[in-house]
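TICKET: design request
STATUS: open
ATTACHED STRUCTURE:
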């Protein structure tokens, strides 16, 4: 039997937090015509947007020491859009997807403490809720962070703000709201798109069950977005460095989110600890930063796809070589590899986690098996550098490709507004 042909105005590929936020945003605007969302798995947001696989943090720019003030303000604005969305929901729904925890970034030792004191001076006017805490102030919020510690510590903290999100639930909520606003919007689960072909008046998408013609397409398929772009001849200037993040569980030790100061030489986020939203009674420490040759964690079938987007070409090797030239980065990458090794990993990670809870014992740490996703970091082959943060390929012909490492989930609605605007003006 020949597959059915369906015509839509906009097709979104990928039902993670990025694709579902766009689905919602197009429904809210109501000016995009017929829209279909295609997700390859039977459940929405089961890859990087699943709360088991990310850090569940609504990044607001206040505790991320790797952000400049400008970037912090941008991220805070994006986070506010998620808060505004959640606050418009009935309380029983809201409480299941967004939570308030105390949140802090901890400086340990003179150098980090001075860095945070200076940061406070610059940031306090823009983040009036931010407090500079000494050891006593920290102990009032997080006693285990102070107990048994000798070095000086300070923290930049907020007490009463939304800081944790179950992004998978949020994705479900976006889709439910979208279909309430626009009952004609369609969702197809278990529908992997196997081919995207450009045609004279749009694009033809192939799934096992149907052919879909769409006037515009937005690909929100995580690391796979780059693969699909390159298969169509776009984004050849990029390769992908997939950075997996694993976590360790402990008994409940922290009341809220405790981040650590980012080492400027390292391109990946520093470890933090926080209560796990999805496993009650557990504190999670992580994520680690393990470079893995996969586009999707624990799916070894994506090894070949990784090799298609990241070939061992000179430009890629130069970027990787540049990274590895730094002894600190080399040591960090090796340590992150060893964190995965049973026995050794736990002992090494203990040293890292003790920066947050000095009294943590080896027997309290347990590797969180099967947990943690992948951040598809872009390698810019032309500029020969890593492009940290989100990236988009927009060839200008009605198709967009989104690659969204952290804080992609926090920025979901801000990105959706940008994409909806582009797509609707294109249509
Ligand atoms: C360890 C870790 C910690 C993180 N912590 C945070 C955090 O605290 N806060 C934050 O804001 N961000 C965080 N991030 C980043 C965040 O998880 C991602 O930015 C976000 O989940 C990306 O969402 P997405 O929808 O773009 O991609 P994904 O969630 O990966 O979704 C892509 C979807 O596309 C689907 N798909 C792929 N190919 C096809 C196809 N051919 N056809 C149909 N569907 C397809 C997939 O099945 C998947 O559902 C973290 C990431 C990691 C790995």
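STATUS: resolved
RESOLUTION: sequence designed for all positions
ATTACHED SEQUENCE:
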């Amino acid at each position: 039997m020949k597959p059915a042909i369906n015509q839509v105005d906009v097709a979104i590929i990928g039902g993670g937090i990025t694709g579902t936020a766009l689905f919602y945003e197009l429904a809210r605007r109501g000016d995009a015509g017929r829209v279909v969302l295609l997700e390859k798995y039977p459940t929405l947001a089961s890859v990087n947007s699943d709360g088991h696989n990310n850090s569940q943090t609504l990044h607001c720019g206040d505790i991320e020491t790797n952000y400049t003030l400008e970037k912090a303000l941008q991220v805070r604005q994006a986070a506010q859009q998620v808060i505004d969305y959640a606050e418009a929901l009935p309380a029983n729904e809201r409480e299941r997807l967004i939570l308030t925890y105390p949140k802090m970034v901890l400086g340990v030792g003179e150098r980090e403490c001075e860095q945070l004191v200076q940061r406070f001076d610059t940031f306090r006017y823009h983040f009036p809720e931010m407090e500079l805490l000494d050891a006593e102030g920290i102990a009032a919020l997080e006693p285990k962070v102070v107990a048994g510690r000798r070095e000086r510590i300070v923290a930049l903290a907020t007490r009463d703000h939304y800081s944790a999100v179950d992004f998978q639930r949020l994705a479900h909520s976006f889709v439910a709201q979208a279909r309430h606003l626009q009952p004609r919007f369609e969702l197809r689960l278990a529908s992997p798109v196997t081919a995207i072909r450009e045609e004279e008046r749009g694009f033809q998408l192939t799934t096992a069950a149907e052919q879909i013609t769409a006037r515009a397409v937005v690909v929100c398929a995580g690391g796979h977005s780059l693969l699909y772009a390159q298969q169509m001849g776009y984004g050849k200037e990029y390769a992908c460095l997939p950075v997996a993040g694993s976590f360790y569980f402990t008994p409940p030790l922290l009341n809220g989110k405790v981040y650590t100061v980012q080492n400027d030489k390292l391109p990946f986020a520093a470890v933090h600890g926080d209560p796990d939203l999805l496993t009650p009674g557990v504190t999670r420490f992580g994520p680690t930063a393990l470079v893995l040759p996969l586009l999707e964690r624990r799916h070894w079938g994506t090894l070949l796809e990784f090799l298609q987007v990241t070939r061992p070409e000179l430009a890629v090797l130069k970027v990787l070589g540049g990274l590895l030239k730094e002894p600190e980065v080399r040591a960090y990458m090796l340590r992150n590899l060893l964190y995965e090794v049973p026995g050794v990993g736990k002992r090494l990670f203990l040293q890292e986690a003790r920066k947050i809870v000095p009294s943590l014992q080896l027997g309290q740490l347990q590797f969180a098996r099967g947990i943690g996703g992948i951040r598809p970091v872009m390698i810019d082959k032309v500029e020969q550098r890593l492009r940290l943060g989100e990236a988009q390929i927009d060839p200008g012909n009605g198709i967009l490709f989104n690659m969204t490492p952290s804080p992609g989930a926090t920025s979901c609605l801000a990105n959706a507004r940008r994409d909806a605007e582009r797509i609707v003006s294109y249509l």
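CLOSING REMARK: The chain has a mean pLDDT of 93. The CA atoms of residues 59 and 407 lie 7 Å apart.
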